[in-house]
Write a structure and sequence with these properties.
The complex is a heterodimer. By secondary structure, chain A is an all-alpha fold. Chain A has one domain. Chain A has helices spanning 10-13, 15-34, 39-61, 79-99, 108-126, 130-148, 155-186, 191-200, 205-222, 231-238, 241-264, 267-270, 274-293, 299-320, 323-354, 365-368, 370-384, 390-404, 408-434, 448-466, 469-482; strands at residues 68-70, 75-77. Chain A is globular, with a radius of gyration of 21 Å. Residues 1-6 of chain A have low confidence and may be disordered. Chain B contains three helices and no strands.
Amino acid sequence: MGISSGNITPILSILPEILLLILALVVLGLDLGLKKFSPALIGWVTVVGLIFSAIGGVMISGHQSGGLYIWGGMLRQDAAASVFQVIFITGAALTAFFALEDSKCVSAEFYFLLLISTLGMCLLAASSDLIMIYLSLELASIPLYILAGFHYRETSSVEAGLKYMLYGAVASTIMVFGFTFLYGFSGTTQLYAINAAIQTGQIPPMVTTMAVMLILAGVGYKISAVPFHFWAPDVYEGAPTVVAGFISTASKAAGFAVLLRLALTILPVLSPYSPYLLAAMAVASMLVGNLLAINQKNFKRLLAYSSIAQAGYILVGVAASNNLGAAGVTYYLMAYLVTNLTAFALAQVIGQANSNDDISSLAGLTQRSPVLAFSLLVSLLSLGGIPPFAGFVGKLLVFSAGVQAGMAWLVIVAVLNSVLSLYYYLKVLKIAFLDHPRETPLIKIETNSWRIAFIVCLAGILILGVIILPWYGWSITAASSLALY
Amino acid sequence: MAPISYYLVLAIIMFFIGILGVLIRRNALIVFMSLELMFNAANLVFVAFSRQYQALNGQISVFFVMTVAAAEVAIGLALMVTIFRTKHSIDVDQMNNLKG
């Protein structure tokens, strides 16, 4: 049924997933014996294990050019899946390091849930069957519901968990309902086989457009695109900051991984309107995210609305549905991972020092910690798309893909929105750099792990923004492997 | 043998009753019941098409959907119990610590 290349066995091609599962069990096992000695050790074990599984992912990706169907067509191991798996695993490793700074999150359960969620995302990126997409989406989401409510003594955290779960359950049900109709039209659940089946059938486009809209509801929730974004501000504000960072980067990247696969395979066949639906979602996300971000008082809420707007920019690349668009989305997600994790890591330590997340308490950050103030500058300018930082290259790629696909109007809206977004990013920077501090507790960073992860993130922002070619080549390989049958 | 359109219409009605329940009801438990209705509407469509095509994959999907729904409800109930301890209510309108 597909292009099979080389002689790698099915077991070997899901090596990263297998390593993640073993690691998750090891973490739980270690908890039994080691908890009394050093809880931080579990975090370090998690990160070392994640690095190994990322290496596994890179190794198997070198073995194949086209797509390889494994496990009865449930998964399709291709370059896109590998690249996204490395993105998720990097995000999980950085989050694991950041979490060591938050004493309420240092426990084996936390790392176990983080690893299982990452496992779900890795499977999601490789899924090529409707059942598998649904199962791995849920495997990625359900641990996140618990993680969002992980500070279970704080009402706001539990509330965030419950809201995240309610919206998530509704969205995934709507998506399954859409899947049932896809199955009904084609008689198969295999993604790449649906294409062929649909082209021969006589189904009214209105019905298929309905199915596309139902499916977009489920994926739109995962990427927090308007109009499925209502959970995002509440969850980002209430959830532990490290978890919010993970949800806004790795989980969003997982949503885009599956959306890209759908957009390059079945969506255009199903409905001629699907690029316009995606474009409409992009415009709505950018406008709603940017306009509502302007008046936010809470830094984490501001990041939530900014992340809704970022989903809009990335959707421009998805709506373009061409090779450059898919590569741009991949590059953007890599850049966004390091950038937004930096911003959330800052929110985490500053929030812990001030015991609130208000933007006004960022005042005089330059005097309290010049290094953190400089990092805030780097990460917010990268979010705003200013060169030489990573965000600029991501924006450039998705916008040029939009122009290439003949959607110049969409790109104009997106560029105007980036200018709008600079207003509130610079407003935060103005408070951090020019205002006088009202309170001056020293911002203390207890753990080396937090420092290491933070330096990696900052280095990532600069490297992705300056040394473009290797990552761009990687993204192009991933993009072109998606559409190969 | 009833034609497939009967099953589809029934499923769509069930799905919309479920959506209305989620949107209108304020008790988190009732919201969960409405969610189950939506899940079962999807299951009904899977089974109906599966019989139409005389193929098993639709029926197998139903097992997965049911399992995931059960896992989801388990997490949801746990979160509800935790929230009930502090708020003594599971009214979704009273979950307003987070807004702005």
